[in-house]
Write a structure and sequence with these properties.
The protein is an alpha/beta fold. Helix content is about 40%, strand content about 10%.
């Protein structure tokens, strides 16, 4: 994945609180993505049906940043995004939101911007408290995507994904798929556990929406320059996105950490399902093709 070197980045939609401890405001709401729909009970045993102790002796992840970065100073152009992870996150958020901003929801509501909040180890949100164990997630109570950059290390070291810039972009685009679901009024349908649960269908739809964004990523114009932020996506990029989708499939995670697969506890879908729905979105470029509830 390569960004246009001359593209201008907008850092206003990424809030950097790494190293700042708990932030945000506690309350009630729904969290989806890394978390399950419902009140935040963000422990790995709830998320994936496995013992959280399997993920490490202290149950924490390692953040890639040791202190908050001055994103506005460091991340000005696509060239910065091509050389630095934090700036790449900014560029992906800009690209994803530029795509959704030109799309009206099925409920007839215009797209509303949603910031990404970077944190280290733990955070307070409009949905309640969360730790990095939850993985990236979207909170409908405060309309924010929450991300500890250490998750991208975990994606490779703990979940076995190949990783890379587009694997990270897939994760972010998936969470913004949840924001679109929130605006469209479908997020409330994501409940329960099991292969055919609303939770699984909601997550697979977000995978499909991530694929739709990827389909249009190199043609979606940046509001500032009028040119696409993302200049190139290769087949290797897409393959790494598919690999990441499979790595966080419920069956892969359960087999890896508990030695057996228990479909009755699924909340996100199998590896093959997640790949299938990302591919559906990417191949068609059509939001209408993402009706996992149909």
């Amino acid at each position: 994945m390569k960004f246009d070197d001359d593209a201008a980045l907008d850092t206003s939609e990424v809030q950097d609180n790494r190293g700042g401890g708990l932030g945000g405001i506690p309350g009630g709401g729904k969290t989806v993505g890394g978390g399950v729909a419902g009140l935040l009970v963000l422990v790995v045993s709830v998320l994936f049906g496995v013992d959280p102790g399997l993920f490490g002796s202290d149950g924490t992840t390692t953040s890639s940043g040791t202190s908050a970065a001055d994103l506005k100073a460091d991340c000005k152009t696509g060239a910065d995004a091509n050389r630095k992870e934090e700036c790449r996150i900014v560029a992906v958020v800009d690209s994803v939101q530029a795509f959704w901003k030109q799309t009206e929801t099925t409920a007839g509501k215009p797209y509303e911007q949603a910031p990404t909040f970077l944190f280290t180890d733990s955070v307070n949100t409009g949905c309640g408290s969360a730790s990095s164990d939850a993985g990236p997630f979207y909170c409908s109570a405060d309309d924010k995507v929450y991300l500890d950059l250490g998750f991208f290390n975990d994606l490779s070291s703990k979940f076995g994904a190949k990783g890379g810039p587009f694997a990270e972009a897939y994760v972010i685009a998936h969470e913004y798929g949840h924001h679109f679901q929130d605006l469209a009024g479908t997020i409330s349908r994501g409940s329960g556990q099991g292969q055919n649960s609303g939770s699984v269908k909601l997550e697979l739809q977000a995978d499909c929406y991530a694929g739709v964004w990827a389909h249009h990523a190199t043609t979606t114009p940046d509001p500032k320059s009028g040119k696409p932020l993302i200049a190139e996506l290769t087949q290797d990029d897409i393959n790494r996105g598919l690999d990441a989708a499979a790595a966080v499939g419920d069956d892969r995670i359960q087999q890896r950490y508990q030695g057996k697969v228990t479909p009755d506890t699924w909340t996100h879908g199998s590896a093959s399902q997640r790949q299938q729905w990302f591919s559906t979105g990417y191949g068609s470029g059509s939001i209408a093709r993402c009706n996992t509830f149909g």
